[in-house]
Write a structure and sequence with these properties.
Blueprint lengths: L7 H15 L6 H8 L13 H24 L4 H18 L1 H7 L12 H15 L7 H21 L9 H17 L4 H6 L1
Helix pairs in contact: 1-3, 1-5, 3-4, 3-5, 3-6, 4-5, 4-7, 4-8, 6-7, 7-8
Protein name: TetR-like C-terminal domain-containing protein
Pfam family, one: TetR_N
InterPro entries: Homeodomain-like_sf (IPR009057), HTH-type_TetR-like_transc_reg (IPR050109), HTH_TetR (IPR001647), MT1864/Rv1816-like_C (IPR025996), Tet_transcr_reg_TetR-rel_C_sf (IPR036271)
Length: 195
């Protein structure tokens, strides 16, 4: 019988808080059960296993993150949208390090055939990049460039990896500006094939 008050939604929300407090890698079914003062077995009426919890947590955090980004980019285009997107991405990673880590796991898409969070992430990201006149496969390449740059910067910053005296905010602004310029002058795949 399911324990009163427990639900998959409550457990995932608690797992997100726990991830920010103790780190994503330290979120376990046992740690989550302790948070509610129950035995591990009580959770399995709501969450199948650790993989299920991690998938749900990734979708939860990804949904939160893209909602934050969507508000930031609303009504903007080009450089303004890219800057708002980048700043909102970084702000989420800094404010919620455990949840952010959850957004980086690879999700088995067969487990989530219709995820509103994943669909919304694609819509917002690709919509912002279409303002640069990009189509496939250039869109996917550009998404990978942005994600790699944003993630790399956020991870290095979180680890204290920027030891040079240069102001980190100035470096961030330069990186985003460089991305904007790269997107404006993107080497389109179709043009390369035609040339």
């Amino acid at each position: 019988m399911a324990r009163a008050g427990l639900s998959a939604k409550r457990l995932v929300s608690a797992a997100a808080e726990l991830a920010d407090e103790v780190g994503y890698d330290n979120v376990t079914m046992s740690a989550l059960a302790r948070r509610f003062g129950v035995k591990d077995a009580s959770l399995y009426s709501h969450i199948r296993n650790m993989q299920d919890l991690r998938t749900r947590l990734a979708l939860f955090a990804g949904g939160e993150m893209i909602d934050h980004i969507a508000v930031a980019v609303a009504g903007r285009a080009g450089r303004d949208a890219l800057t708002a997107f980048a700043d909102a991405y970084r702000a989420y990673a800094r404010r919620h390090p455990g949840r952010y880590a959850a957004t980086q796991i690879r999700i088995d898409r067969s487990l989530v055939p219709d995820s509103p969070a994943m669909r919304r992430t694609a819509e917002i990201t690709y919509g912002m990049l279409r303002a640069y006149g990009l189509d496939e496969p250039d869109l996917t390449d550009a998404v990978r460039l942005l994600r790699s740059t944003f993630h790399g910067f956020c991870m290095l910053e979180a680890a204290g990896g920027f030891g040079a005296p240069r102001d980190v905010e100035a470096s961030w602004a330069k990186a985003v500006d460089a991305l904007h310029r790269a997107l404006e002058h993107w080497p389109r795949e179709k043009e390369q094939q035609d040339g």
